[in-house]
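Exercise 7. Given the components listed, write out the predicted structure of the assembled complex. Treat all entries as one system.
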Amino acid sequence: MSTPIRPSIEPSGIAQVLHGDRPATSVRRARAFDRWLVAHLQRIITPAAVRLELWDGSSPYDNSATAVGSVVIHDRRTLIGLALHPDLQFGESYMSGRLEVRGPLEPVVEALTRVSQPHMSWCDRVTLTLPNTLTASRRNVHGHYDLGNDFYRLWLDRHLVYTCAYYANEQMSLDEAQIAKLDLVCRKLRLCPGERVLETGCGWGALALHMARHYGVHVRACNISPEQLSFARERAAREGLADRIEFIDEDYRNVTGQYDAFVSVGMLEHVGLHHLESVADVLRRTIRPDGGRGLLHFIGRDVPCPLNPWIRRRIFPGAYTPTVAEVATHTLAPAGMSIIDIENLRLHYARTLAHWSERFALVKDRVRQSYGEEFERAWELYLAGSQAAFATGWMQLFQILFIPRGSAPPSWTRSDPYETPRVAR
Amino acid sequence: MSTPIRPSIEPSGIAQVLHGDRPATSVRRARAFDRWLVAHLQRIITPAAVRLELWDGSSPYDNSATAVGSVVIHDRRTLIGLALHPDLQFGESYMSGRLEVRGPLEPVVEALTRVSQPHMSWCDRVTLTLPNTLTASRRNVHGHYDLGNDFYRLWLDRHLVYTCAYYANEQMSLDEAQIAKLDLVCRKLRLCPGERVLETGCGWGALALHMARHYGVHVRACNISPEQLSFARERAAREGLADRIEFIDEDYRNVTGQYDAFVSVGMLEHVGLHHLESVADVLRRTIRPDGGRGLLHFIGRDVPCPLNPWIRRRIFPGAYTPTVAEVATHTLAPAGMSIIDIENLRLHYARTLAHWSERFALVKDRVRQSYGEEFERAWELYLAGSQAAFATGWMQLFQILFIPRGSAPPSWTRSDPYETPRVAR
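Answer.
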């Protein structure tokens, strides 16, 4: 193609693009080729009622009154990128400011998500077989979770729980719903005072602290994010729970000992498809064969599908959101575990993300000052895109409760967890 | 092997064998070979504390005080059969009386089940790919379900529910627990008055009648057992529910129309591994895309494994008990469905079967008079063996609730089904 392509906008140029002070080149008229290409893209996304608009204001969408919002494409390079690799380029261009969304961000992303189809390309299949080595896992986790506790404190709930909350009723605040989630996990596991619990991927320690405080158990909680661990240890000491919780800097694959209960909330997504079987090894080794039980809480799928490539590049390198069938086949069956109970909390995650987005919007300027505009826009899109993914059923949130095959389930019926919360809501 | 093998006992000889009046040949002394072989079998089942005994009273088990019971092998042919193909020959020999169990049957079978390992042989894999054609399905169903309503009326609950009951509390009777199961299914599906429900494999119609009576829905219920259908139609007419239920003589693959809810209790085991995808076609066609939901209640496994070969030969030809992963992969994913909730009621089935066995024992003589001794012994073993399979975790009972991908789940949390039973227990 001989059409000259506009050079990339450097971060320093974002402010100009976003705030109207655009370089002279960006207001030049779109050519016939540009109009043809944007019309083609508009047809592909037709049911979405999202209006595409070119840098000169032209648009193939003739009914802007019904559109939930507009996507403004600022240059030809972005337009071509969107045509060639929309899943990656939408995020890249939004982040760099070469693409703008006019109107509320989440509904636009949700509308676009609804017209997408999950698929697994040849390239995805190859990429997914690449192992997350111990070193790679540390690097991946460090990149996301060690952004600084201060960053997460700006917009998470007060206990820093960075996983799907459980809105036991629809009026709950984010803080209440996170506590309700911690408690739901404990009740599903039927924790009893004095029992030993292993938690892998403990984040800032909120679940470990909740289990130790309200259920009287001894917790061994591991994580490979130093920032999170030091926060968790400080909190345990401050709250007088240090004698009941051991926070250890260890990869889940290296954990030793045998426990009454195993729990992992929001870690399975990070182990990668290739390593679901290494989780099986851990379960087989660590769960007491008679009377032990485990719970996995993770973002999953209905059909095997890699994460959006932009999310993999910018937010969660090495992550994979597995299906129930994949977890059952590669983790639970080889570990000798029986599925007792599965719950899908997809819409609870959509609501959690809506709450996070609301709170993030309030601190947007502070994030921009500390981390730069690209970072702030990337996170804004990541939160909105994730909310859209759960709202549309593109992604699921599963809690799976399991026990060693042939052992007694922790309860005769599962009704109790919903009747007797240990913690007042 | 040159040892002469005793000819097969014909059914007419069973009484002699069972009641001590054995043919003279059977009391001849066991040879060194027999004692070597039975000692070998005893070692294999060692952890089971089940005593093996030969026809002359000799046994390699030296601690009969701790044994839960004895398996008495009446002839060499049975001994060799057990060594070569235990899974099939145990049932065949028990049924024909060539093998006897002294002591309570279920604990012995349970102990033997615990020391078995589920496995899928080469031959199993081939067999499982054989399709259940429409004709074969009718033949398979006819063989089991058309034994005569009178037969099932002898020992099932009063509404003739021939699937796992739900003991909402441990004191429930079988009758109460079957009603509780019907109601649990309705509440999981959140049925509303006026809705249209499709039920495939409706048995004697108990669930269809319960849904129509207590939830005010219109039910289309299909089955391919003429005896069951005529019973169900009569009951609907007698109870004044005929205008709300249509019982149709149709294979699940041929059902048409679109419904608010789909439900199938105890049918998926009969479709065969090869036909899990044909269930997907039905779900995709019949469940309303927006707001529809479905429930599959079926006997399943933790790992892929064929049914016991004796059960396949004598009780359920063409049946296969799938794993959650198989149902998710071959039925729900291709149907475009999202898993909302899974519950494993394994121990409830063990209890249901214990209740069935108790009731069966009370009518044993009548069954023997009407259907013969082989039949009665086969059913006695089938019930005890199934109870053992659920008690040991060899088999599972799954209820899977699902919805079309991206549509709204029937409820915000799942707590309600346990709090507000529509029917007094």
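Discussion: Chain A has two domains: 11-114, 134-419. Residues 1-24 of chain A have pLDDT under 50 and may be disordered.
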